[in-house]
Specification:
- The chain is mostly helical.
- It is 70% helix and 2% strand.
- It has a two-stranded antiparallel ribbon.
- Strand 1 (51-52) and strand 2 (55-56) form a beta hairpin.
- Helix 5 packs across helix 8, helix 7 (97-127) packs antiparallel against helix 11 (214-241) and helix 8 (138-169) packs parallel to helix 11.
- The radius of gyration is 19 Å and the shape is globular.
Length: 245
């Protein structure tokens, strides 16, 4: 049963390949090599080039937002599905809800890790075609590590929130709720473009300064991990106290 679940999750994760290929057709076939560091090209491919004042890359690109919604659609009921008609049967036999939900949260986080690795691998292979000469230098490696450490908790956090909402209201409402929240955070990022606090604390606010300073990168990564921890604790407490019967 566990092997079957792993196979199903892996199959779902692979859906990102045709999505990225379709959204990157112009970059794959029409773009010409640029005299620009690979790290910057990779960053701008993921976050776009929206700018305000002296701040570059405030928010995520449309393509990257689609990657978030794809993950939410694929795994937005990873936990909430157990609260349907089979909920009473399952939870009446659990020795501990806390252990069960903890395993589900950890499992979803692991799925988001593999999803992020595949996503970054695809974007890296596309971005590497757009530089005249590229090499895996320290800055490129730092950018990849930073992107991974920021994105995987973001994927897990967004999907956990969708699952939480879906428990009571269903997956469509969960996805809509996440969509509204993301749009609100994107708007806040734009309106407060000159705020360093907004860059660190707003999970959907970015600029290229993040990969130009180790301190800023660590602060941003820590904030994303804190949001994941808070939401994990919140959904755990909620499920432990929810009346299933």
């Amino acid at each position: 049963m566990r092997k079957k679940n792993v196979f199903i999750c892996a199959k779902k994760i692979l859906h990102i390949i045709p999505y990225i290929f379709f959204m990157s057709l112009s970059d794959i076939f029409l773009s010409s090599p640029q005299d620009q560091p690979l790290a910057e090209i990779l960053w701008y491919d993921i976050f776009g080039r929206l700018s305000s004042g002296n701040v570059q890359t405030l928010v995520m690109s449309i393509e990257s937002l689609g990657v978030f919604f794809l993950f939410t659609i694929l795994f937005g009921n990873h936990i909430s599905v157990f609260f349907d008609s089979i909920g009473t049967f399952i939870f009446s036999r659990l020795p501990s809800r806390r252990i069960w939900i903890s395993k589900k949260v950890i499992g979803l986080s692991i799925i988001s890790i593999f999803y992020t690795i595949l996503y970054l691998s695809l974007k890296f292979s596309i971005s590497s075609r757009r530089v005249i000469v590229w090499q895996m230098d320290r800055q490129t490696l730092f950018t990849l590590v930073t992107l991974f450490a920021m994105l995987f908790p973001m994927f897990a956090t967004v999907c956990l929130l969708a699952n939480w909402i879906s428990i009571k209201h269903g997956l469509p409402i969960g996805i809509i709720g996440v969509f509204v929240l993301i749009l609100a955070l994107e708007l806040i990022a734009i309106l407060n473009f000159d705020s360093s606090m907004n860059m660190i604390l707003n999970p959907l606010c970015f600029n290229i300064d993040i990969i130009q300073s180790v301190e800023i990168a660590l602060a941003k990564i820590l904030s994303e991990l804190v949001y994941l921890a808070i939401l994990s604790i919140g959904i755990t407490l909620y499920i432990c106290r929810t009346d299933i019967f």
